[in-house]
Design a protein that fits this description.
single chain; 321 residues; mainly beta; Jelly Rolls; eight-stranded antiparallel sheet; seven-stranded antiparallel sheet; 1 helix; iron; metal-binding; RmlC-like_jellyroll; Pirin_C_dom
Length: 321
């Protein structure tokens, strides 16, 4: 799943200018975005005033949607560069195809990790025969300059490490937590974890004080550091924490996102991350001309055209409010 908005606007990300060096409780409300013809998502990042959390630069939450009598997710071939996509499901399944030849069905709590590097294209769709409900999150991780021109690749990890404590089960999506490490390839100090809390759970999760963190609520009723976080919203927590209090009023699902603050300044336009106007212009030209990003074979439909570039110059400016 990606940014399918036809009137795309540039997002100026990165840099340490607006990293909060101490613990905070900043509740981020989502923006409703149409995805294709049959889906709507809640976009948490980039958000007004908060562009990144560590290297995490894009977060969409969707569902649970009843797609029993609908086609479900239908995202035609589209390009990426300079980032990784993380596909994460709680319900349903998504069929991934990409220009490296990957063909993979991703199921709940399996990691689909695509590293675009210099250039890749992919499609995502609900299989023709699919489960009734679709519920998940799509996230992007910005690649640092030293790795953003790497060869594209796709990873699928069905068996991920799990950390347990009374009342909570944490599945490692990316990076490490409490001694466990995900097999997914990471290029910056980062963590992504899926947290399942049972009703009445009252726990403290160990954190890295040098990381900045946020928690996305997927389902249920939970308090994060004393703040009620409803499904589809996200609480930004800043840095300087060695632990995080969590309390569940019902069975609840959360996603913990964190990492070292990303120092480099970025331009994010449509489905590309670059460092200059020239890079974005070239990426758009290459995609529209059918070069560089490869071909997604097997998808029944045409690729997505890129939106027009804005009339003003694109400049990286860090974490702009």
């Amino acid at each position: 799943m990606s940014n399918l908005e036809r009137e795309a606007a540039p997002s100026l990300c990165g840099g340490r200018g607006f990293v909060v060096a101490e613990p905070v409780r900043e509740l981020l409300s989502p923006r409703q975005v149409r995805l294709g013809e049959s889906s709507e998502v809640r976009r948490l990042l980039p958000n007004l005033g908060r562009r990144m959390v560590g290297a995490w630069c894009f977060v969409d939450h969707y569902g649970p949607d009843d797609i029993a009598d609908e086609p479900g997710m239908q995202v035609p071939p589209h390009p990426h560069m300079g980032l990784q996509t993380v596909s994460w499901l709680h319900e349903g399944e998504v069929l991934h195809r990409d220009s490296t030849g990957s063909l993979q069905t991703i199921r709940p709590r399996e990691l689909g990790l695509m590293t675009s590097g210099r250039a890749i294209s992919h499609s995502e769709e609900s299989p023709r025969s699919h489960a009734r409900f679709l519920h998940g999150a799509q996230l992007w991780v910005a690649l640092p300059d030293s790795h953003r021109h790497t060869e594209p690749r796709f990873e699928h990890h069905a068996d991920l490490p799990v950390v347990t404590a009374p009342g909570v089960t944490a599945t490692l999506i990316l990076g490490g937590l409490d001694g466990a490490t995900s097999p997914g390839t990471a290029y910056t100090p980062i963590v992504g974890a899926d947290l399942s809390l049972t009703r009445g759970a009252d726990v403290r999760l160990p954190l890295e004080p040098d990381f900045e963190y946020a928690v996305l609520s997927m389902s249920g009723e939970a308090h994060v550091d004393g703040v009620p976080v409803l499904p589809g919203s996200m609480l930004y927590l800043g840095c300087g924490r060695s632990e995080l209090p969590l309390r569940a009023e019902s069975d609840a699902g959360l996603m913990l996102l964190g990492g070292e603050p990303f120092e480099e300044e970025l331009i994010m336009f449509w489905n590309w991350i670059g460092r200059s106007q020239e890079e974005i212009v070239q990426a758009r030209q290459d995609w529209m001309e059918g070069s560089r990003f490869g071909e997604v074979k097997g998808y029944d439909g045409a690729p997505l055209p890129a939106p027009e570039l804005p009339p003003v110059p694109l400049k990286p400016r860090g974490r702009v409010r």
